[in-house]
Predict the structure.
Amino acid sequence: MLVQTNSLLARTIQFFQKRKDKIGGIYNHAAMFQVEGDKIYVIEAIQTGIQKTNFTDEYLNKKRYVNIIGLSPLFDTTGWDFVETMKPYINTTKYDFFDLIVEQSIRFITGKWLFSKTIHTKHFICGEFCAYIYYLLKNSLFSNVYEIAPLDLEERSDFSHYPVKN
């Protein structure tokens, strides 16, 4: 899913992303859904690291989320175990503040990725974590995991978009 909020940090992320794409740049956060019985959770990279969050409590019942869209793969994911792939990172992996504040900002200003092109697994920003999970399941999908921001997920032609909250 991609999320648009109006916090200061969200508006800052949107400011830099809109330099590349005025429409797709409105989404400042990315996360992945997990369904357990009748509950929907979100696995996401947030300031406290990779966390599992109750979707209804956190996203649907709070007014700060202006717009949420779901992304659905247009390719076969039969046999993919997203939950087991994400599990080792929940509550153990840190948030990458340097990437968010410095690396992504410079990328959107210059239009180029000027930093390490190595996939790291000790810390992520939200878009990178989503891309990394897809990379683990189908490594040809995202070769540039290290630089993925919400805008990059929004622009992908291999996902359809559907409204969740607006």
